[in-house]
Amino acid sequence: MSTQVVTKSVTAVSGERSVAGTIQVACFSKEARLKRAAKTAAICLAIALVCVGIPGAHFVLVPSMLLITPLMVLRTYRVTSLIAEVNATCAACGGKLTSLTSKEIYPLYERCLSCQRENRISVAS
Ligand SMILES: [Zn+2]
């Protein structure tokens, strides 16, 4: 099993109100992280290859992409988990919350698309 999806109980808080919900987190194994890093490398190198055909700009774009590639690969490899889905409602109005960030750093601060209030989402203990 390379990627495991874990469901965590969370609490969304807006002002005085709080609502329980769940959050699904994709946890990557070492093999999955290597696959994601290889995919990132392939994308960066493909962009560098496309930049070869741009007259003039290729003198800057190709070396830039070749320098950025190992940094992007390392950054992708270091990601061990990402938020896949948020199943929580806004504590203020009851509208569905959607996660705009994918990094699993708690507490999450998500703005409700219905009432524009900020909800603080933290893992329920
Ligand atoms: Zn709301």
Number of domains in the coordinates? Answer: 1
> In percent, how helical is the residue content?
25-40%
Structural class: alpha+beta
Ranges where pLDDT stays below 50 over 5 or more residues in a row are: none
H/E series, N to C? EEHHEEE
Radius of gyration: 19 Å
Instruction: Identify the overall geometry.
Output: elongated
Mean pLDDT: 93
Q: What are the bound molecules?
A: zinc ion
Biggest sheet, strands in spatial order? 3-2-1-5-4
Percentage beta strand: 25-35%
Query: How can the largest sheet be summarized?
Result: 5 strands, antiparallel
Beta strands, count: 5
Topology of this protein?
Elements: E1 3-14, E2 17-28, H1 30-51, H2 58-78, E3 81-87, E4 108-111, E5 118-123
Antiparallel strand pairs: 1-2, 1-5, 2-3, 4-5
Helix pairs in contact: 1-2
Description of the molecule:
The chain has 125 residues and is of the alpha+beta class. The chain has one domain. It is built from 2 helices and 5 strands. Strands 3-2-1-5-4 form a 5-stranded antiparallel beta sheet. α1 runs antiparallel to α2 (58-78). The longest helix has 22 residues, at 30-51. It binds zinc ion.
Please supply descriptive tags for the structure shown above:
125 residues, alpha+beta, 5-stranded antiparallel beta sheet, 2 helices, 5 strands, elongated, binds zinc ion
